[in-house]
Amino acid sequence: MQATMNLDAAFSALADPTRRAILARLAKGETTVMELAKPFEITQPAISQHLKVLEDAGLVARRVDGTKRPRRLAEAGIEAMDQWLAILRKALDKNYDRLDKVLASTEQPKIKRGEKR
Amino acid sequence: MSRLTLKTEGNTHIVVTRRFAAPPEAVYRAHTDAKLIQKWLLGPEGWTMPVCINDARPGGKFRYEWVNRDGSGFHVTGEYLELEPYGRIVHVERMHLPDPTPDNHVETRFDTDGTGTLMTLRMTLPDAQTRATMLATRMASGMEASYVRLEGMI
Fold first, then answer.
1. How do the domains of chain A map onto residue ranges?
2. What pLDDT digit, counting tens, does each position of B52-107 carry?
3. What CA–CA distance (Å, rounded) separates B120 from B17?
4. Disulfide check for B73: which of A26, A30, B67, B137 has CB 3.0–4.6 Å away?
5. Residue A10 contacts residue A54 (beta carbons within 8 Å)
6. Domain A2-110 adopts which CATH fold?
7. What is the DSSP secondary-structure string of B138-151?
8. Is A107 exposed, middle or buried (0-12, 13-18, 19+ CB in 10 A)?
9. Structural domains of chain B sorted by starting position, each given as residue range(s) with its CATH number in brackets
10. What distances in angstroms separate CA B75 from CA A87, B52, B68, B93, B106, one per listed residue?
């Protein structure tokens, strides 16, 4: 159930507007923490803290490049979230497909005998 | 082709739209008549709703109880705030897991769309954190069913 726990963390991570902005920036490409901090009116340690939350949630990955630790979007994390949204959509679809049938059966009496549907 | 759309809006909203072949009056009834609700508001495969109490009038309460094949379950309680036949319903609801989740404020609109209905469900959660948790929770319960269905298909 590791995937489930990561997903909880992923959605919690996305609840914060700064973290969503960080992800939006990373969607444009890999970048350093210093570059990431520039557009935000918060300190670099605060950005690092947000990045840690995003990394723990599996949404952001880092690599080692000399003394730098550039961050990028973790494809697996983003894809997992897309899949889960698709699954929620499927669950709702299931409900409303049933409702279609309920509606079709309650409409039935209005159709005259012998008339084609 | 899915006729359903699902999107988040701002920090606290979730908006779902769906088209139905039936007129607004019929879709509205299917949302307010307990006997009809019990037939479709079941979520994932394998769940049933043995208890469906629904007092569809302003101030009226509702209680839906679901159980899974393995006997586990949960329930939702809520109150109706506004009912405008056959165009609009406003209610609040919360899931009991068993502790109650923060209130989800839901406005459901039924607009005439050709010979059918365009339904727009707009949920408002107290804050972004609650919305995120709710999405994750609903997805968690939806995933199990999807896997069960997949097994059936493969």
1. 2-110
2. 999 999 999 999 999 888 888 889 999 999 999 999 999 999 988 777 888 999 99
3. 5
4. B67
5. no
6. Arc Repressor Mutant, subunit A (1.10.10)
7. HHHHHHHHHHHHHH
8. middle
9. 4-153 (3.30.530.20)
10. 21, 10, 12, 10, 17
CA-nearest residue of chain A to B147?
A87
Q: Which of B79, B77, B55 is nearest to B64 (CA)?
A: B77
* B22 neighbors B49 (Cβ within 8 angstroms): no
**CB–CB contacts below 8 A, A to B:** 102
Which two three-digit tokens encode residue A59?
């949404």
List the structure tokens of B47: 């769940």
CB B39 within 8 A of CB B48: no
Residues of chain A contacting residue B136, judged by C-beta atoms under 8 Å apart: 7-8, 10-12, 84
Euclidean distance between CA atoms B141 and B44, whole angstroms: 8
Token pair, residue B17, equals 């739209």
- The count of C-alpha atoms lying within 13 angstroms of the C-alpha of B82, restricted to the half-sphere facing its C-beta, is 10
Residue A1: predicted pLDDT: 36
Cα A30 from chain centroid?
19
CA distance B58 to chain A (A): 24
CB within 8 A of A86, min separation 6: which ones? none
**Report field, pTM of the whole predicted structure over 0.80:** no
DSSP character at residue A59? S
| Cβ–Cβ under 8 Å, residues B123 and B105 | yes
